[in-house]
């Protein structure tokens, strides 16, 4: 199985996913694509010998459909079986989601269904929650709303800031996403809870 990974930034989740797809793992990374030309994850992917591509949304002046057409052709040139969104910060239209229906995953830094959208750690702290975490879900037309395939939980400590909490969650993302992907590529959608 071939996995295309979409990023917008440092790509630490992409690195974890790529590093997990070795040996008897039934999948391999076939592409790392970023919507941001200088994304740090692109260099990491190249260093790992993975093909990279950039489709800069700024080249399409707000024409979301044209951007997604370019995205789809850049991705499909590598014929992936699965799309893994990993720190990809563009909202995708139903057209794109339908094209990859049933084979696109995302990782979100909250215990969904709580805190869809942005600033998830700050919101959990302000709500006085005792725990936070991350979720891997199938991507559907509802933002951060698809079936949850796995979650990892961490405690929120009294003196936590969004940054200290993010730093506690991120390593759990790096454990969760590969565990979910390993099952997903063989059609196993039993939930992973770490
Ligand atoms: C992570 O918190 C991830 O949950 C979110 O983007 C952040 C950065 O991810 N989607 P990465 O280091 O670029 O993988």
Automatic annotation (TrEMBL):
(6R)-10-formyltetrahydrofolate binds at residues 64, 89-92, 106. The active site is at residue 108. Residues 1-181 form the Formyl transferase N-terminal domain. GO terms for cellular component: cytosol. Keywords: Purine biosynthesis, Transferase. The record marks 144 as: Raises pKa of active site His. It comes from the Bacteria. GO terms for biological process: 'de novo' IMP biosynthetic process. Its EC number is 2.1.2.2. N(1)-(5-phospho-beta-D-ribosyl)glycinamide binds at residues 11-13. Transmembrane segments: none annotated. GO terms for molecular function: phosphoribosylglycinamide formyltransferase activity. Catalyzes the transfer of a formyl group from 10-formyltetrahydrofolate to 5-phospho-ribosyl-glycinamide (GAR), producing 5-phospho-ribosyl-N-formylglycinamide (FGAR) and tetrahydrofolate. This is Phosphoribosylglycinamide formyltransferase. The gene is purN.
């Amino acid at each position: 199985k071939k996995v295309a990974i979409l990023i917008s930034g440092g790509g630490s989740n992409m690195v974890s996913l790529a590093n997990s797809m070795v040996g008897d793992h039934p999948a391999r990374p076939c592409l790392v694509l970023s919507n941001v030309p200088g994304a740090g994850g692109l260099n990491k992917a190249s260093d790992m010998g993975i093909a990279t591509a950039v489709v800069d949304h700024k080249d399409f002046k707000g024409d979301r459909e044209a951007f997604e057409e370019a995205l789809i052709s850049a991705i499909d040139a590598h014929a992936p079986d699965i799309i893994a969104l990993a720190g990809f910060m563009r909202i995708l239209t139903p057209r794109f989601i339908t094209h990859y229906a049933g084979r696109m995953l995302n990782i979100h830094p909250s215990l969904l269904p709580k805190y869809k959208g942005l600033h998830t750690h700050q919101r959990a702290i302000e709500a006085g929650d005792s725990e936070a975490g991350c979720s891997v879900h199938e991507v559907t037309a509802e933002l951060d709303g698809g079936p949850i395939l796995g979650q990892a939980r961490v405690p929120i400590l009294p003196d936590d800031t969004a940054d200290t909490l993010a730093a506690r969650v991120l390593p759990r993302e790096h454990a969760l996403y590969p565990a979910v992907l390993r099952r997903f590529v063989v059609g196993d959608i039993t939930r992973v809870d770490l």
